[in-house]
Amino acid sequence: MAIRVPAIMHVKQLLRGSFLSGKEAAFTTKIVPKGYFAVYVGEGQKKRFILPISYLNEPSFQNLLNEAAEEFGFDHPMGGLTIPCREDVLIDLTSRLNRL
Hints:
Layout: H1 7-15, E1 16-21, H2 22-26, E2 36-41, E3 47-52, H3 59-72, E4 81-83, H4 87-99
Parallel strand pairs: 2-4
Antiparallel strand pairs: 1-3, 2-3
C-alpha cells in the first residue's frame, strides 16, 4: 500500500508559481508560461500563484474575479490579478477545480 501525500500539499506545490511576496515579485522577472496567468492573493503580504487560463471559464473562479473587480478595479500595479481572498481559499477552490 502506497503512502499518499495529503492533497493540499500536492496542490500547493503544483499551483505556487513562486514563493515570492508581492514586493519581491515586483523586482524579479515575471515570466508566466503560455496558457497560464498570475494572481496575487493574501491578506497583507500577497503571494503569487500561476494558474491555468481554463479556470477563467469556471463560475466559482469568475465569482472571485467579480469580487476582485469590485474591490480593486481593473488597475493591477503588481502585474497580475489581485484577488481579495486568503491563500487557503484559493488553494481550496483550485483543488476542487482540478478534480473536475
